């Protein structure tokens, strides 16, 4: 029997007018996304907005489990999916700050199998032509998604198909732990030469394995001791502490276009996973993740708990793509959790380079990431705004939730 950890609730802390926001305009967020529930696009959601470190808006709507008739509440547990990646990236940077790894270190230093990984050059999944690596995969490549690793669910390249044949699409083969998964990925060809392109894939899962090896601790223990414990994120982990509070996952049926329950992905978070996915395995509450985001927004510290130094966070949220280009110039045209135009990529986070090209009233330097079940967060350091939206719909590209959420938050700024 598990014990439920209440954790922080992300409740409203200040009158919006005191921090330059309009309460009536913030209410547009609720009216807009209520329609998503009322017309059947979403089951339910939780939105949190803060300015200058204080929550100005926190609302829930709809149901976390339609079949059981259970509403979304402030303590609903959500599958974070790829919003796990920033946590793993922070974990790696904790070790970097301590001098236990370098961004330029070849990852074969800890995972020798990657010393022999080949690179896809041409051909098909049944008859691939491979060549040697021009340079080794380095820690920097994992943090920036430029290692050449991919996801099976892309369905865009022969290497994606090789991942699916090995049992990796949205999930992995049953019974395989993280070390075993990493060995399989190392045996498959890279999609491109390390550092040559940006492609969304299992890079952060490999990074999580490196965190385990370097620290000598399983990833869940490292997270608990170095991030969640210090930040008071008591309801976040690789398994829901209270399954009844865990929201259902829904998906768009490609045949009917209707939303249906996604049972395969819905099993995640119900029992302890065999493989601790640093790329997509965490479950938590909006209140918990709000604290993680506030730690980033405040330069690595929250309520006396310093996780990273401020210069480390500043370094993470710069654009690390070569030549300062955006993802349209350096990324493959496949699925990512953010648009490509006007967006660069730092160490585990996307970064706004050009709000005009992005077609959103964001500030230069705003950083973000999301998850495949349509969760998202972003930090705007210029406006001192943080925002989070939690729901459970796959894929996250089904509706323009993220761009609409941004514009609805920005239009409420009135100072």
UniProtKB/TrEMBL annotation:
Domain of life: Bacteria
Pfam families, per the entry: Beta-lactamase
Limits of the Beta-lactamase-related domain: 29-404
Protein name according to UniProt: CubicO group peptidase (Beta-lactamase class C family)
Biological source species: Kutzneria buriramensis
Lineage: Bacteria, Bacillati, Actinomycetota, Actinomycetes, Pseudonocardiales
């Amino acid at each position: 029997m598990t014990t439920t950890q209440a954790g922080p609730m992300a409740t409203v802390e200040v009158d919006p007018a005191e921090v330059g926001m309009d309460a009536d305009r913030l209410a547009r967020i609720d009216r807009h996304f209520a329609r998503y529930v009322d017309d059947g696009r979403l089951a339910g959601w939780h939105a949190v907005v803060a300015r200058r470190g204080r929550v100005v808006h926190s609302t829930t709507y709809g149901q976390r489990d339609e079949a059981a008739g259970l509403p979304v509440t402030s303590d609903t547990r959500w599958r974070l999916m790829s919003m796990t990646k920033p946590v793993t990236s922070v974990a790696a940077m904790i070790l970097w700050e301590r001098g236990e790894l370098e961004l330029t270190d070849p990852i074969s230093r800890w995972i020798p199998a990657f010393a022999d990984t080949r690179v896809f050059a041409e051909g098909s999944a049944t008859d691939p032509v491979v060549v040697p690596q021009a340079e080794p995969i380095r820690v920097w490549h994992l943090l920036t998604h430029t290692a050449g690793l991919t996801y099976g669910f892309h369905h865009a390249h022969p290497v994606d198909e090789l991942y699916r044949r090995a049992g990796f699409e949205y999930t992995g083969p049953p019974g395989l732990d993280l070390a075993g998964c990493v060995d399989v990925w190392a045996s498959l060809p890279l999609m491109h030469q390390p550092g040559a392109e940006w492609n969304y894939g299992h890079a952060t899962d490999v990074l999580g394995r490196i965190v385990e090896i370097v620290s000598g601790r399983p990833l869940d223990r490292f997270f608990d001791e170095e991030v969640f414990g210090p930040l008071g994120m008591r309801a976040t982990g690789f398994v829901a502490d209270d399954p009844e509070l865990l929201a259902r996952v829904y998906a768009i049926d490609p045949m009917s276009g209707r939303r249906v329950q996604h049972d395969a992905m819905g099993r995640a978070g119900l029992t302890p996973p065999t493989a601790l996915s640093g790329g997509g395995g965490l479950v938590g509450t909006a209140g918990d993740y709000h604290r993680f985001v506030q730690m980033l927004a405040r330069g690595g510290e929250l309520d006396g708990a310093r996780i990273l130094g401020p210069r480390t966070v500043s370094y993470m949220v710069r654009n690390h793509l070569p030549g300062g280009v955006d993802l349209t110039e350096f990324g493959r045209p496949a699925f990512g959790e953010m648009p490509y135009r006007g967006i660069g990529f730092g160490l585990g986070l996307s970064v706004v380079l050009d709000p005009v090209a992005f077609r959103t009233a964001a500030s230069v330097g705003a950083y973000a990431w999301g998850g495949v079940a349509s969760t998202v967060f972003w930090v705007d350091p210029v406006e001192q705004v943080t925002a989070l939206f939690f729901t459970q719909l796959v894929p996250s590209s089904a509706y323009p939730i993220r761009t609409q959420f941004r514009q609805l938050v920005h239009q409420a700024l009135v100072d």
